[in-house]
Amino acid sequence: MMAEKPVKFVIFLSLILSLVAFWDHQFTSYLKEFVVLIHEICHATAALFSGGVVKGITLHGNEGGETIAVPASFRGSFILVVSAGYIGSSLVGAFLLRLGFQGRHARQTMILFGLFLISVSVLYSKLGDLAYFTGIFWGVGILVLGMLGETSSILSLVFLGTSISLYSLYDLSDFADRLTETDAGILAFWMAGLGPEDLQNEEIPTVVLILGYLIATLWSLLSIGIIFMSLRSSLSHEEHHDHQETVEQFERFPGELSPEAKLWLEKRGVDPESGIVLPPNFFLEPPSKDNPS
Q1: Which residues form the signal peptide (predicted)?
Q2: Which of 28, 189, 269, 288 is most buried, by the most CB atoms less than 10 A from its CB?
């Protein structure tokens, strides 16, 4: 586990600055395609969990992708599936980042994540397509890193969580540039009662624009909030963990304690026999000499 809060913050900030500096580098383009795949997998996962059917996942090579799914029959399932792309990516990034900073179950998480990516790629993308290649490549890489050890897994989780979170926030800029081509625009057309053929019209109805920007704003606030709360929780997790370690490593007091010392410790929630800090109100009022229990 990363021992100090400043270390965590420096690592996170360094990764952010590095990714921004190499944003147009070829390696970063592979990373972007991976995050787009995560976005599409979130759509597919929402469809499956809501009782729908996933027919395929594709990547277009221009930081765009497509999930072909048939949502369940209940009306809210379409809203859930369409919303899952942006919100789901933020949740995945925040989850991986938090696990990486906590340093718990890092290897297991990496191995399961790698197997999950490989399975989804085999099941829902065509052999030889970009989505298939991206899922297999990253899935195998994540699987190998998970098998190398705990340290490599922790660093990889922090890197993946930071990358997905950063790109998820960057992806929100699509709402300002090409709203109607995003998931928010698609959902706005659907909520306005318009069909897929209406997406091709050059003139965008005002109601679609209003709904689209409202949806985009809501998704943006949720995504930013999810990542912020996860980062805040990850950076502040150390204090609680250090307290637990102190409790677990507290050794029995040497020698014999006087009755006064035992009473003093009990009032402060410390077991005088083991030295363990106990929950408040654990000790009952000590019995009086006149009325022993």
Answers
A1: none
A2: 189
CB 54 within 8 A of CB 47: yes
Dihedral sign of CA atoms 17, 21, 27, 32 in order: positive
Q: How far is CA 222 from CA 56, 81, 87, 165, 216, in A?
A: 27, 16, 7, 12, 10
Along the 293 residues of the chain, how does pLDDT read in single tens digits?
A: 444 555 666 676 777 777 777 777 777 888 889 999 999 999 999 999 988 899 999 998 888 889 998 877 777 888 899 999 889 999 999 999 888 888 778 899 999 999 999 999 999 999 989 999 999 999 999 999 999 988 889 888 988 988 888 888 887 777 777 777 788 888 888 888 776 566 566 677 788 888 888 988 898 899 888 888 887 777 665 544 444 444 444 444 455 666 766 676 666 666 656 555 555 554 444 555 555 54
Per residue in 151-206, pLDDT (tens digit) is: 889 888 988 988 888 888 887 777 777 777 788 888 888 888 776 566 566 677 78
For residue 24, being part of any structural domain is answered with yes
Q: How many domains does the chain have?
A: 1
Q: Are 184 and 212 in contact (CB under 8 A)?
A: yes
Residue 285 lies in a domain: no
Residue 214 to residues 41, 185, 188, 209, Cα–Cα distance (Å): 24, 10, 9, 9
pTM, full prediction: 0.74
User: Which residues, including other chains, have CB under 8 Å from residue 34's CB and lie 6 or more apart?
Assistant: 134, 138
**What residue numbers bound the domain in which 159 lies?**
7-248
**Best CA proximity match to 86, nearest among 164, 14, 198, 8:** 164
**Rg of the chain's alpha carbons, rounded to an integer?**
26
Contact 156, 101 (CB under 8 A): no
Asked whether residue 268 is domain-assigned, the answer is no
For the record, the structure tokens of 242 come out as: 């250090």
